[in-house]
Amino acid sequence: MGRKPLIAGNWKMNTDAVSAPNLAREVLQKTSRLRNVDIAVFPPFPLIPSVLKVLDGSAIGVGAQDISAELQGAFTGEVSAGMMTSLGCSYTLVGHSERREYHLESDELVNRKTIRALEAGLIPIVCVGEKLSERDGGETFARVERQIKVGLAGLSKEQMARVVIAYEPVWAIGTGRTATPQQAEEVHEFIRKLLATLFDQQIADATRILYGGSVKASNARELMSQPDVDGALVGGASLSSDDFAAIAESAG
Ligand code: PGA
Questions:
Q1: Which amino acid residue places its CA nearest to atom 7 of ligand 1?
Q2: Cα of 200 to ligand 1 centre, how many Å?
Q3: pTM, 2 dp
Q4: Contact 150, 191 (CB under 8 A)
Q5: What is the DSSP letter of 110?
Q6: The domain spanning residue 211 has which CATH number?
Q7: DSSP of 174-199
Q8: Does residue 99 lie in a domain region?
Q9: Which of 51, 110, 131, 202 fits 151 for a cystine, CB–CB 3.0-4.6 Å?
């Protein structure tokens, strides 16, 4: 289908003022010869400027781990999409399962954040995925369908053309328990078919759907060899430049 893979490193609440630019520098050095893969890193908010400085002029994108659903104003502690664009960010994660779980983010809030990101010129990586109880209860497809339908509600086709989806089964995040390539592929295929009904076939074929959840250098190639897996959202392994570069290499 010609979808260029995207490898996204979600640093979560890790690194500091010294280690964040160092990690970015190492990632840059170790991935500079890769041409057929897009790479992006998602440092914690205060470390973003130092990472942008290191990656200035490079092909590696920088993104926020979250943004506010509000435009601006009296929202203490919040960070707007426009602030991220003004710094030089090109991406933001939206609806990561840790935001959904610990900050009670609803599908409706994820939708508002997705629209804010698009309006500010950011590429949203909209995260979806079922919990273990939902998988065990046979509710995986229904859960993901609602997350996608509500999360992307009201988007024009032009807007949707800039969205990236990440399928991250919650039971696989940070647990060392990865979905099998077959488990990932069946949900990715389901999402793509859903996008064709919600938007159109062309959009569905062009949308990148990343897999996330304990992606490592040792399992990345097999996961990304699936026809509908277009890259990875990497948490733990993105904190090692060697591991992250190896994952990017297996995509490109
Ligand atoms: P993990 O995290 O790779 O550590 O499982 C993935 C994520 O939360 O994006």
A1: 235
A2: 30
A3: 0.97
A4: no
A5: H
A6: 3.20.20.70
A7: TSS-PPPHHHHHHHHHHHHHHHHHHS
A8: yes
A9: 110
Q: Is residue 50 assigned to a domain?
A: yes
Q: Using CA atoms, how far apart are residues 220 and 198, in angstroms rounded to an integer?
A: 29
Q: Over the stretch 24-57, which tens digit does the pLDDT of each residue have?
A: 999 999 999 999 999 999 999 999 999 999 999 9
172 alpha carbon – ligand 1 mean position (Å): 8
Query: Which of the residues are catalytic?
Result: 96, 168
> Which tokens in the block code for residue 46?
């205060």
**pLDDT per position as a tens digit, 171-184:** 998 888 889 999 99
Identify whether 1 is part of a domain. no
- Ligand 1 site, CB within 6 A: 10, 168, 173-174, 212-215, 233-237
User: How many structural domains is the chain composed of?
Assistant: 1
> Is 36 within a domain?
yes
Residue 204 has pLDDT above 80, yes or no: yes
Domain that holds residue 105: 6-251
